[in-house]
Amino acid sequence: MLPDGKMYSLLTRPQNRSGFKPLPVVIIGNGPSGICLSYLLSGHIPYFKRDSVHPHPILQRKLEEAPDVSILDQDLEYLSEGLEGRSDSPVALLFDALQRPDTDFGGTAESVLTWWHETDRAIPHLVLGRNAPGGAWHSIEGSMFTLSKGEWMGLPDLPFKDWLKQKRRGLRNNRATAEDIAQYYQHYVMKKGLQKNFSCGTVVTSVRKVSAENVSKHAQEDLQERSDSRWNFSEENTQVFQVDGFFRTEKGDKEPFSVYADNVVLATGTYDSPTWLGVKGENLSYVHHQLSALEEAVKNNSIGIMSDPVLIVGAGLTAADAILFARHCNVPVIHVFRRRVSDPGLIFNQLPKMMYPEYHKVHQMMKEQSAACAGPYECYVSLPEHHVLSFGNDKKCILQDKNGYQKAYKISMALVLTGSNPNLSFLPNNGIDLAVDSDQPVNPKRNPIDVDPFTYECTQEKGLYALGPLAGDNFVRFVQGGALAVASSLLKKANKNPP
Prior knowledge:
Blueprint: H1 5-12, E1 23-28, H2 32-41, E2 44-48, H3 57-65, H4 76-80, H5 90-99, E3 113-117, E4 125-129, H6 160-166, H7 178-191, E5 198-200, E6 202-211, H8 221-226, E7 239-248, E8 254-266, E9 273-274, E10 287-288, H9 292-299, E11 310-313, H10 317-328, E12 333-337, H11 357-368, E13 380-384, E14 386-391, E15 396-401, E16 406-410, E17 413-416, E18 420-421, E19 464-466, H12 476-493
Parallel strand pairs: 1-4, 1-8, 4-5, 8-19, 10-17, 11-12, 11-17, 12-13
Antiparallel strand pairs: 2-3, 6-7, 7-8, 9-18, 14-15, 15-16
């Protein structure tokens, strides 16, 4: 999906041509975070629905204090004070509570928000993404079920369940498939009329600050028609962001582009760069770091029931998905992980058995089918408290247990599925300077980008924002609060709030 003619001409304009007035906002990443922010920046404004009753009495009283003032224009810190839930972000808890008032208690209360389309408050913006709208959801095997409830995957003002009903489909154990989610996000962009802001098939290679004096203050004619003199971010800015990259043409060629922006929002997620073990031989051709490699090998008949085992390293949900897929295809598996099976930090020990029967089955296998104790499951061996020492050219893998005992295993392929990290190579110093601990790489769980909790603006770089996993919000239901915070901040910066 390409943007309309004017935005497309903006993207394709070579860098060395005369400058133009910067865009107010460029969003890098077109997953749920970027889509939600685009919806808010397109002039869709949330208000407290009159006569609604929120189950949280203190929040209800606060909402009743200014019913005619949009949520974006209120004090988000004040509204979110005292809220508790499954996120550390106050604004994420607030927006989630407004959209799904009692969902954590199994309730089905409707949203207390009503949405108004106020076109005069829309902020011109551009959303850049590698894939179709939905981001990494298009890279996940379509039949995989989501960890979260299907209803938690929905975006503002278009419940996922309602969309699914139109397809005459239901949820299994209240969960949806990755294919459903990817299709829903694409549908959302079209249904809400956001596609003119999206440029897909684009790869950003550099984001850096440049002097605003080097950028012409006279807008090109085509951009001037889209822009609005009311958006005066750059009048006070001595620097703007230059975003460079390339997009793929219909012929498959790489076409470079440059755009300038007063504000840049990082919403790239963490699916880009799988974690490596850092052991000898990990770069050999039979060692892979994505589940798709196993799917491809089965599809090509290069592995099967008579093959040497597939080594699966990791104890998270992606490793579990690989085990389930391998068992479905009768492919033998050796499963290696560092933790004890009973470790409370293991994700399987935190999931309700009734809601996640397939993951409970994997956990059961991990407990009952160790190499030391044969169990009822054929073609699967569990090796808890083991780690990989090396991979050999002869497809032999050396493993070591907690006591230092080493053993070699002949395998057909290895899948190292121990998590992933964001690829921020387009930022100076890979974005490390923006992290909470600026001596360590950005990590969504251990070292996210340091942002203001009520604006999501980076504390180390004004005008740069971070959303979703980059800011520590790892579930779709909670990334939307960050989008609310960013939209509120940008509207206040531009003095576009009503009195």
